[in-house]
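Protein modeling request. Please complete all fields; requests missing the sequence field cannot be processed.
Requester role: graduate student
Desired output: 3D structure, token encoding
Chains: 1
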Amino acid sequence: MSFYLNFLFGIFLFSSVSFSGSCLKTVQKLIPQGRNVGEIYSELQKQDENGKTKLALQSDFDDLIREGGGGACASATAFNLLQGLRVMAGLKTLQPKHNLSRAFRALPELLDGRVTNTQMTQLLKYFEKHFPKHQLKISALRTSQSQAAPGEAPGEVSEKWDENLFVPKSNEIKMVIYQVHDAKGLLVGRHFVVLKNYEPGKIITVIDPNYPHKELKFQLTEETDPATGKPLTRVSRADGVPHRLGWVFTLDTLFSAQLESKSSR
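Delivered output (265 residues):
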């Protein structure tokens, strides 16, 4: 009997030493590394019997954007990044329409469209409330082609884009923003997508809010702007097929959102 009691006490002692006080840090280490971001989104992209995924579809929100404001790609993509971070943190997925509607009420300027980097940061910080044990570390790196909105701080600008910038750190998901110019070279606007995967040779797979169930691959190519002489990064289809309307995509900003344990600060 004494052996049995000692055995049970040993189990209790091991449990208290192994898990008490260190559980949160252990869970933090188990959050998927950057290489698993693709797996997370492959699950979120699966369609149900109604053809719906667990990601926001831009067209469900486009009618809410005021005339002249473009579409709802920025807000839909912000939600899709949130959804991936929720899975990464071991939390249940959220309902897109309900939660984006609440975001629009909290940040009505999003309905003007043409979302700036400052507004995107505000939206992601608003979504931080969906992480009871974490906070979001958000950063944005602009290219030399990126223009800050009137009254907006220019933010960090880099002319050299190393491949490592596109590889997520632990507990991190990235968002790519690129400029869209028409066949005449006029700026149409900016488009926002979640970075699902990065492959050597600067090939990226993204989640486009227009087609959240599809995998879209792009090739990043370094060029020189003939007008300014500054470097720029073109974003073109990986298969080399040009856009049907002759539009040209140019990298503008790379956002990063990383989960941090609230106990780490």
